[in-house]
Amino acid sequence: MLVGCKRYGRDVGGTGRAPNDGGGREFLRVSEQLRARLSDGFYHVGGMLPTQRELAAEFGVSRDTVQRVLRELVSEGWIESRQGSGSRVLKTQRIHSSTAKDTRKGRVTLGPLIGEAFEHPEVSLDVYTLTSESLDTHIRLQAERIRTGSIAPQRINLRMLLPDDSLTLPYPRAVGETGDPLLLLKRMQDITRRHTTSLQSVLRALQAERYVPSVEIEIRHAPLTPTFKLYLFNGVEALHGPYEVIERRIILDDGREVEALDVLGLGATLMHHVRDGNEDSQGSVFVDSMQSWFDSVWTRLAQ
């Protein structure tokens, strides 16, 4: 069912002239960056987001665009927003670990784990995911660290497994009549292609500009519906977590809202496991088994 079929074009509370938001592209850019901040604990649970006016100024978009993004974050359970009271943070991404990696915050977050992986001379990153959205954001952050000389990896090897585009996945999908039953799936695939192209461009530019001597990127598609997300760092660490299916409203590029079944990749609870040198330890067994699983799908199923 489509609800609230409204188009947004004027800066509410402003002059009536919105900045050039570039349609849905700017909406996606702002929503992706705010999700990444929320997932990594940039905004603390119980704290307040900057005001709509401050966010609009920071990202160079209209307040209408910011309002649309905040509505989507409310539907995903990240924040609660009340008129006149601002937007309060309800959650960040939960990562549970038996190893204290981020002592400054007292918990593990995805950003520092990827950051630590890129501090090694040889960077190996194997990823199995529904989309490439969150990975693109973090790769861009590491690319900036490399360009500023903060880190200097000599070799980066990225392998990413994505679902085959020919699959009709069970999510995301609209609930009720929408006209095109594959509307949301096509939207997700478009977002995935955009982020995949982006991260490939970023990493290959590092080699072309001679910041990193060797960069290898390979992306394959498997005939599987992802039910979990998996990151394998340098063969010694793993992040693993299931996708939880929820019902929420998805806001389309034209401002329409669609009731849908979806999963939240950035909102998934992840478990952190470390290969500690003891081949019989729980961490070592888990990392080794997931690496073997990834390699088997990569070699025998993916194209």
From TrEMBL:
Q: Name one Pfam family in it.
A: GntR
Asked whether the keyword Amino-acid biosynthesis is assigned, the reply is no
Top-level taxon: Bacteria
BP-aspect Gene Ontology terms: negative regulation of DNA-templated transcription
- TM ranges are none
Q: Which InterPro entries match?
A: Bact_HTH_transcr_reg (IPR050679), Tscrpt_reg_HTH_GntR (IPR000524), WH-like_DNA-bd_sf (IPR036388), WH_DNA-bd_sf (IPR036390)
Coiled-coil residues: none
Q: Which CDD domains does the UniProt record give? A: WHTH_GntR
Per UniProt, the keywords (alphabetical) are: DNA-binding, Transcription, Transcription regulation
Residue ranges of domain HTH gntR-type in the record: 24-92
| UniProt GO molecular function | DNA binding; DNA-binding transcription factor activity
* Protein's recorded name: Winged helix-turn-helix transcriptional regulator
In its UniProt entry, the species of origin is given as Streptomyces himalayensis subsp. aureolus
